[in-house]
Structure formats: structure tokens, C-alpha cells
Amino acid sequence: MPPVDVTLTDRKAVEKAAKKAAAAARKREVPLDFARAWVEFADPEDAEQVFRCDLTWLTSRWTCVFGRGCHGIRPGRASDGCCTLGAHWSDEDDRSRVTGHAARLTPQTWQFHKQGTGPKGISEPDDDGEQRTRRVDGACIFLNRPGFPGGEGCALHTLALAEGKEPLETKPDVCWQLPVRRTYDWIDRPDDSRYLQVTIGEYDRRGWGPGGHDLQWWCTGSPDAHVGAEPVYLSYRPELTELMGAGGYAVLAGLCERHLSTPGGPVAAHPADG
Residue 45, CB half-sphere, CA atoms under 13 Å: how many? Predict the structure, then answer.
């Protein structure tokens, strides 16, 4: 009888168990369409803007469970979290900012330092020609994999924490904003005036486009990730302040507090909160 590769056998068993757990977790995800409570208010810092905010999402107990229950978006890659696809740059400023921070990473803090500082750099085009962070061994070049001595997870995130910064300062825009989604729409009023509506809501499966429905698992609708000690509007205070401005966030926080203190409980609570 030929020798058995115990390592390969064990790995396959682990992958099989992970896929089974992910399939079960997807079945627990709540439907995409359910009652939500929205609120609109004028931006105190810009008279031409009105914020439209999803109180159901922002007062939910969602929290990032990377490395502690995250099933990942691709089968067999739970340790990637949502980093499997790489991060698309929002604009050239986004790429330049991240490139500057990446220059402070070292081989001790960045597993793929050699590749990232090599001739190919940190960017590559996707199938549609849009630039994103390079993928190495199937995931973002900045993602340190399990077993790396410098620590698992985003090297840019770890850099920010080590320097006493908010991760939003060092990571690509799309990475620090997820799973909050900000969109813009010009709204025409009956008196022929118009305003810019800034919507702050949940980045659910639809936020990824048609391909979002094919993700192995997605956290915003999963009870597995609605286990936070604080509601989103508090745990994501730095990110929301960056997205809305200090004045806008202050108004939002007050409205969220009132929503949570509604007698009998908040109207249209997120069903994934349980």
C-alpha cells in the first residue's frame, strides 16, 4: 500500500468541514428584502446635501468576525475573509495614499513584501481592466496568511494600529468602508430646486453587483456576524465620521440613540440581530 500523505488528507478534511459550515451559515442568512427604518436630515455642514440613513443597519449588532467565525466569500478560503478578490481603487488619490503607507511596511510585517516592492508593484487590472490591489496566491497582496510570524490579516490594518492610527488612514477606501455603503443621487424638488442625497446604508450582497449573489457567504445578513458589543453607529464611529463629517455624524448618533430607545424596541430592527 502506498504511503498516505497525512498532511494532504488533513487539509482536505478541514476544507470539507469549512465548506459544510459555510453552506450551513448561508442558509441562516436573512432575506435581502425586509422592513427597514430610514431617516433623512440636512447635512449641517453642507446646505446642498441631505443624508438618508438606514437606522435598521446602523443600529444593528453587526461586527467584523474576521479570524473568529468568518466563513469567507470563496469556498475553501475562509481565512481570506473578504480579501480574496483584492481591492479596487476608488481613484488615483486612493492608490497613491495606500502606496505611501505600504512603503513603511517591512518583511517582518508584510508577508508579500518582496512581491509588493518588486517590478510588478501592488496593482493589477481585473478582467474588465479596472485597477485593484494585486492578488498573490489567490488573495490580496496585503493579506498576511495564517502562520505568518508577523501576524495574520491585513498588513495595512496592522500598520495603522501599531502607529496609533485609524485603519481608514492606511487601507484602500473600499476596505475601510465595508460593509457600510455610501451612494449619491441628485433629487429634483417640485420647485425646480435640487439637492444631493447621500445615502448611508448596508453593503449587502447586492452591493457587489450581480456577482454578489454567488458569494459563498456574506456577513451583513448573517446572524453569525450580528454579535457585536455595540451597534454599528458606535463601533464604526471613525468611518462614519469620515464619510459624513463630524456634524453629520453627531446628528446621526442622536437619531440612532432615539431609535434604540423607542418604547417596545426599535422599529424594523435588523432580523439578523435575532
Answer: 11
Residue 98, C-alpha cell as written in the block:
495606500
Phi and psi dihedrals of 270, rounded to 5?
A: -65, 125
- What pLDDT is recorded for position 5? 53
Contact 90, 177 (CB under 8 A): no
Q: Are the C-beta atoms of 148 and 112 separated by less than 8 Å? A: no
Cα separation, 54 vs 272, in Å, equals 15
Which residues make Cβ contacts (< 8 Å) with residue 120, sequence separation at least 6?
134
Q: Give the residue, 5 or 236, on which the prediction is more confident.
A: 236
Over residues 187-212, the pLDDT tens digits come to 999 999 999 999 999 999 999 999 99
Q: Which residue from 240, 232, 247 is spatially nearest to 49, judged by alpha carbons?
A: 247
Q: What is the DSSP string of 14-82?
A: HHHHHHHHHHHHHHHSPPS-----EEEEE-TT-TTEEEEEEHHHHTS-----TTTT---SSTT-GGGTT
Residue 128 makes CB contacts below 8 A (sequence gap 6+) with none
The residue assigned the cell 513584501 is 113
